[in-house]
Records
---
Amino acid sequence: MPLNRSGQAPREESAGRPGAARSVWLRAESARPRRTPPLSRQRIVDAAVALLDGHGIDGLTMRRLAQQLDVTSTALYWHVKTKDDVLDLAVDQIFGDVRLPHDVGDWRDDVRTLARNWRAAILRHPWAASLIGRPMLGPNVLARTEFLQSALVRGGFSDHRLAVATRLLANYVIGAALTEATWRQTADPHARAEARRHITANPAAYPTLGASGHLDDARWDDDDLFEHGLDAILATAPR
C-alpha cells in the first residue's frame, strides 16, 4: 500500500467525510504496475456497484472490494485512494444507465424522458439516491445535467429561473425515487398498507389524509403521481 508523507498507510475514509485529497475527478490516475488480468478503474467500479447493490453503502469496504476483485489492498490503492473515490465513481456509473433521447425533440418531452430514466436508474440501485449531492463531476453526471439544462433553455428558462428549475427537477426525481426505494426495501411487504390503515383508523386526527388517499396504493399509483408531478413542475415554464 502506498505510504503518505508521514510514512503511514492511508486510512479508509467513510462516505461523506471530507478528506484532504481532491475529488477523484480532479486527479489523474496514478501509474501502476501491470497485473494479469490487469486491474483497471472500470473493473473496480463494476465490482463496487455489485457490492453496493447487494449490501448497501455500509457493506462496501475497501477490504471487501479487494477480496471481490481477488487482489491485495495495495493493488487497489493504485487506482483509488479512498472509499469516497469508489462511491463517486459508482454514482457516475449509475448515471451512465440514464438513457438520453437519440434526437432532440420537444423540450418538455426531453425533460420527461431524462427524469423517467433517472428515476428508474435510482430504483434499480437504491443506494445511489443518498449519495447524490456529493461533488458531481463525473462525465456521465455532467452530460445529463448539460442535457437537462439545454432542454430547459429551449423552454425559455435562463439565469436564476434556469438554476431554480434545474434544482427543482433534480430534487423532485431524487426525492421521489428515494421515497419509493425506501418503501420497497422494507422488510415487511405490507408496511405501506398498514400505514394506510393507521391513518384511516384515526379519522378525527387525520381527516384530510384519510380523504385524500394518502399512502393508498389502490388509489394512487407511484408512476402516475410521478408523471403528474413532472407536469406541475414543467407548467412553470416562462410564457
Note: Confidence is low (pLDDT under 50) at residues 1-14, 16-20.
---
Amino acid sequence: MTTETLAVLAVTVTAAAFVQGSSGLGFALIVAPVAGILDPGLLPVFVLASMIPLNVYVAWRERASLDLRGASWITGARLAATPGGLALLLLIPDRAIGLFTGAATVLAAVVSLAAPAFAPGRAAYLGAGAVTGLTETATGVGGPPLALVYQHRPPAELRATVAVCFLIGEIASLGLLFATGEGRAEDLGWAALLVPAIAAGAWASRLVHHRIDARRMRLFVLGFALVSGLGLILGM
C-alpha cells in the first residue's frame, strides 16, 4: 500500500468514525466504497476490523440506552446468516467485489431514504439481523438494515444497540473468514495501523454526539453513500 493510499484511508476512517460515533451509523457506508476504489482486496476484512474498536467505545459510552431485547433478536439472526454471507463472498469473483459493494451501498442508501416510519417488532429485528449478516460478511456494509429499524428511536438507543450488534457480528464474520482462509492478515495490520485515526474521530464525536442533528447527519451519510457507491460502480 502506498503512502498516498494510507493517507486517504486515514482521513476517511477518521471522518467515518466521527460520523458513526455521532449518529450511530455511516462508518462502513463511507469507508467501504473508498477502500473498494483504492484496493478491492481490502474488502471486507479491513472494514470489519476497523469498526471493532469504534463499536467497543460507542457501546460502552451509550450502554445505558441499549435495547437489549432488540439487540438479542438481531444478533441471533445475524449470527445465523453469517455463513450465508461467506457463501455469497465465495460466489463473487475477486474482480467483481468492488462492483458488488458499490451496488449494495447504493441499494442500501436508496432503501434507507425511501422507507417509511414504522414501529419495529420481532420480524423486523430478525429481518434486519439476517440481511446484515449476509451483506456485512460479504462486503463490510451492514448498517442500513439496522438504521431502518432504529431510525425513529432516540439517537442514544440507536447508537448503543447498533454498536453492540455490529461488534458481535464483526467478530463472528472475521472469525469465519479467517477460519475458512478468506481473510488476509495484512488487512488486520492496516486496520491496526489506523486505530489512532479511528480513535481521533471517535473522540471528536464525544464532543457533539448529544446535540447533533441526527436527521441531517443521516441524510449526509446516505447522500455520500449514493455518490461513493456510484463512483465505485462506474470505476469498475
Note: The chain has a mean pLDDT of 85.
---
Amino acid sequence: MPETTLQVTQGCFQILRFPSAKNEKLQAWDAADEYLLQDVAEKLDVNDQPSVLILNDSFGALAVALSAYKPSVVSDSFISQAATRKNLALNHIAIDSVSLFDSLVLPQDKFDFILIKAPKTLAFLEDMLIRLQDNLTLNTQVIVAGMVKNLSASVWQMMVRYIGATRPSKAVKKARLIYAQVAKDRIVPVNPYPVCYPLENSRYQICNHANIFSHKSLDIGTRFFLEHLPQDDKYQQVVDLGCGNGVVGLILSEKNPNAQLHFVDESFMAVASAKANFKQAVTTINASFQVGDALTGFDDKSMDLILCNPPFHQQNTIGGHIALRMFEQSQKVLKPDGELWVIGNRHLGYHVSLKKFFSKVEVLVSNAKFVIIKATNL
C-alpha cells in the first residue's frame, strides 16, 4: 500500500490520489513536493501574509500543506482540481482556503512566491511562464520543483529566458529545486500559443493550446485512427473520450453528420481547443464539450459509439490505470449494441484489458505500430 500521510514542516496531512482506485499502488506526492515544502517553510511567515501562487500541483499536496497562506492554484487538470478539493475536505480545511484557477484564466494579482511543479509538457511550461509575466515583481521568488529526471536542459533554458538567472539546489532523494531571480531587463516574446496548422487531407485549420499532445502537427496514431473511422447512421450519440484537440470527433462528425458529438477531456486546454476547432469547422453545431473525469456524469446505456485514444500517463507517472477506468466506464455508458473503438500502440496490449469488461473484442485494423480495436457486448 502507498503512503498516504504527508509529514512535512507545515504539518501532517492525509493526501490521496484521485480518482480513487482499488489496491492503489501509487503515492499522491513525490520527493520534489516534500523538498519544495521544506524549502519554503523557512521562507514563508504567515504573519507577513505573503501571496503565494502554485502551478501544476498534481493532487493537492502543495495546496493542502500551504493552505494557511490562502494560495492561488493554477492547473490544466480537472483531476488535479477535484483531488485538491477532496484532500482539503479530508484534512478538514475550508475549501475557500485555496483559490483554484484553470489554465485558461489566470489570477490577476502580483505574487511574492510562485511555486511551479515542473510539468510533463515543455510547451505548457513555456505558455505559463509567458502568461505569468504580469504576476511578477522584481522581488517575486520563483521556484521550480521536480524530480531530476524531469528537469531537462530545456526547463532551465526557459526559466532563464522568461524569468532570469537561475541557480540549483542540491539534489535530495533524486529531486531538485531551481531558483529563478526575476530580471528587470528580461524581454518576453509574443506568446506563440495556440499553435495552428492545416489538417492534412481536409479543409480544416486545427488550433491547439500549449498542453495538447503533439500540438504542432497531427501525430501518427491519430492519423491512423482518422483513416479508419466508421460511417453509419446507427451512430447517433457519440463520445470522443479523451478528446484532446477534438480532431477525431470532428472527422467522425463529417462522416456522420446526424450524430450528436460529446467531447470529453480532463484538460481544460484540450476541451477549449476541441470546442474552437469544432465551431470553426462546422456551421451547424451539434456537439457538447465537457471538462471532466472521463465518463463520470454520463447516463448508463446512453451512447452508441465511444472513440478513445487512452493516455498512458498521468502527470509524469506512466501506467494503464487511466485506460482501465475509461474502459470500465465505457462498458456502462454504451447501449447494449454500442461500440467502443480504441487505438493504441501494439505493445500496450489493450485487447487483454478490454476483455475484462467486454464480451467481444476484435482487432479491426493494425499496422507495424498501432492497432484499432472494437469492443462490444453483443
Note: The chain has ten helices and 20 strands.
---
Amino acid sequence: MSQKENLNAESEWAEVLEKARKILRRKHYSYRTEKTYLDWIRQLADYLEYKLPQEVSGEDFQNFLTYLAVERNVAPATQNQALNALVFFYRKVLEKNIDPYIEAVKAREKRRLPVVLSREEVEAVLSELEETYYLICALMYGGGLRVSETVRLRVKDLDFERGLITVFSGKGDKDRVTVFPRKLTPELEVHLAKIREIYHQDRRAGVAGVYLPYALERKYPEAGKEWAWFWLFPSKDLSVDPRTETVRRHHIHPSAVQRAFKKALRKAGVEKPATVHSLRHSFATHLLEDGYDIRTIQELLGHKSLRTTMIYTHIVGRRITGVVSPLDR
C-alpha cells in the first residue's frame, strides 16, 4: 500500500470510529462499553493493516477472532467481548450481515464455581476496611450489588424506611430493587452528613452538577445540582468528564474499591483467591443456605437467566449433602 493509500485508509477508519462513537452514545451505551468497543475496532483495523473499511468482509471477522483464540490465546470471555464489539461494528456501523459467521467463532465459556467467603471471613475482611470502603463493601455483601452498581448509587437510591436499594441501569441497562441492610443505617446517616458538606462545597464553588444518565441532563438541566442526585460515594477530587470535558465531581472509581478489598483480605489473613465481587457471590450463597427461594435470589441479583443463579446451588449443595468421606470412616 502506498503512503497516499495508507493515509486515505487511516482517514476512513477515523471516520468509521467516529460514526461508531456517535451510534454508541445515541443508543446510551455506557462510557466503559464505548471505550471497549472502540478499542476492539481499532485492533481489527490494525490486524487488517488498515484495509479500507468498505472492503472488510465476514472472513476478516472470522479470521480475527480465530487469531485471538489461537495465536493470542485469549480467554473465552475476552473472545466473546471482542465478538460482541465486532458484531455491533458490522451490523450498526458497516451495515453488513455478519450472522452466518457468528456461530463459527463463538467461544464456549467455561463455567467455574465462584469464590465464596464464609460469614466469618466476610466479617473479618469488612472489619479491616476503613470508613467509605467499609460501607461500599458492606452494601455489596448486604444487598448483592456489583462494585460498579455500588459506586454509582445516588442519595435518592436508598430507602431507609422501607429497607430497599434501587439499582438504576445495572448490567444490561436494567433497573432492580434489592434489600438494604438496616444494620448500616447509623453509619450511613453519619456518612450522608459528611458528603452533604462536600455537596454544599461544590454548590458554593459553582461546580457543575453530577453526571446524569441519558437525556435527563437536557430535560432537567438543574437536576444534577440537586442533593437527591448527588453520589452516595463521591470522589475526593474533581475531574474532567471524558464525554463532555466538563469539570465536575464523579464517584469513587471501582478500582480503588478493589485495591482496598485486596489489602483488607491480606490483613484479615484470608487465603482464598477472592475479589471484591466475591462479596456478591457470598450474598447469594448465604441467602440460599438460609433457605431463601432461588427465584427470589435471582431477582435480587438481577440475573436475566435462572441458569446463572443456579450455580450457587452447586456450592451450597456441597455443604448440606452430609456426605462423609470413606477415609473418615
Note: The two ends are 74 Å apart (CA to CA).
